[in-house]
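Morning F.,

Quick status update on the modeling queue. The single chain you submitted on Monday has been processed. Sequence for confirmation:
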Amino acid sequence: MSQDHDAAFNPAALFEAVKQQSYPNATLYIVATPIGNSADISLRALHLLNIVDAVACEDTRNTAQLLTRYGLHKPLIAAHQHNEHEVAAKLIQRLQAGERIALVSDAGTPAVSDPGAIIVDAVRAAGLRVSPLPGASAAISALSASGLVNDQFYFVGFLPAKAGQRESVLQGLTQIPASLIFYEAPHRILESCQALLHVFGSERRIVFARELSKLFEEIHRCTLGEAAHWLAQDSHREKGEYVVIVEGANPDQADDDLEAKRILTILLTELSVKQASALAAQITGQKKNALYQMALEMKERA
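Structure tokens below.
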């Protein structure tokens, strides 16, 4: 414990330190905003939002509320997924005239499963400066509290809404050893969990992070086999934005699965799914039921 009782918390000194950094003109600043608790905005973000010429934002109403909360008032430019190309051209003109422009999304870090990437790409292609102000990120916050011990993570973002496209994406992730991070809307959480269970099996661990930094924050870890039961225990769990993290593939299991698929590919050219999975089980020592499901999926995709 610190023994420096003479030192006192001094917000003014912190803001003074923030001001010492250079904030060049003709720059697009990527500003992370809170994902729930408004106190999570950084001092640098507040200072920057105070000195920029305008703020490009996903929803002008949400951003106006955020700025007003801190006594800030700036011209707002709507920059959402339907107008990014058009807005990018306008922002480039203003940046070339020497303005500072902040880019924010409704919550978290812009351009990460949120609008902004097209604008950033266009600004960079025009030879202009882009500078990030780090801050809240739902994916990283959830990962830090997951307890999944893995030095690697793979950010997927939102899965496709259509079942066939969603399964195709998930099938491509089955052999990845990194922790898999998804975003999901509350009205699709049950459907997505069923798809995860179908593709990854019941033993993989899953972490649900709901309403991060908000009043009813909830973080739960279980196996995929237990996930549907946990969700069904409380109707409120079908509300609030989710970060879902699925444990990565066991490297040894991934190698075994690749070998099983190689063998099944050969056997399925001559045998039925039932016969091929039974013979593959004898060759590999893996469970026949799991191999049957694998063979069935391979046959359906062929």
